[in-house]
Amino acid sequence: KAIRRQRQMCIRDRDTTTLRKSDKVFYYYLLVKAKMLVPDIPALPDKSDLALSHFAEQKDSSRLCQLYFFLGRIYAGRYAFLRANAFYNQAEKFAGQNIRMLFAIKVGEAYIYRFKMMHGMEKECLERALDIACELKDSTLRAEAMHELAELRISEKNYIKARNRLHRALELVPPQKNWPKLNIIKILPEFI
Asked: What is the pTM of this model?
């Protein structure tokens, strides 16, 4: 815990006055990513606008996509769903051929729609995510999409379809990648 606190202080207390503009922008980009990964980091300065402007000037669509995605995750975690959705929409515009990022965006959007009980929109996003996972031939992503679709079915109180999705998700997870199985196994007994 002390090491984590020390890292947080190191991230927060960096003097950026001596950094070149491009280094400063990248530092701000990393701050946003740190906020997304560790939401409880206190009082990180929000300089994402500077980073977004710089990446737009540089026509760096990859970094723009990532930064918008990070911001979407941050705001979704704060239950600021309108802002989160706006950031996800921007991320999607810059995703280009990065369909793995598009998968993550669609799952993020689905979370927002689940919370807002907009099941039709959630289903649309998750089915698109499943299509992407199938296109990539990535069984772990397919299992994740199936798991999310099962969560949708649970919120709709359609437990038979939820159970079927969860069983299918378990079948898809490769033996060496058991992390998604843990989430699936936690809720599966409720439906057997």
From this structure: 0.80
Helix (H, G, I), strand (E, B) or coil at 10: helix
Token digits of residue 63: 């970094």
Confirm if 171 and 146 have CB atoms less than 8 A apart. no
Element (H, E) at 86: helix 81-95
| Residue 118: Cβ within 10 Å count | 14
How is residue 159 written in tokens? 């437990």
Condensed to tens digits (0 to 9), the pLDDT of residues 115-138 reads 999 999 999 999 999 999 999 999
Residue-wise pLDDT for 75-115, tens only, equals 998 899 999 999 999 999 999 999 999 999 999 999 999 99
Neighbours of 176 (CB within 10 A): 6
Listed in sequence order, the residues at least 6 apart from 4 whose beta carbon sits closer than 8 Å to its beta carbon are: none
Q: Please give the Cα distance from 95 to 64 (Å, whole number).
A: 9
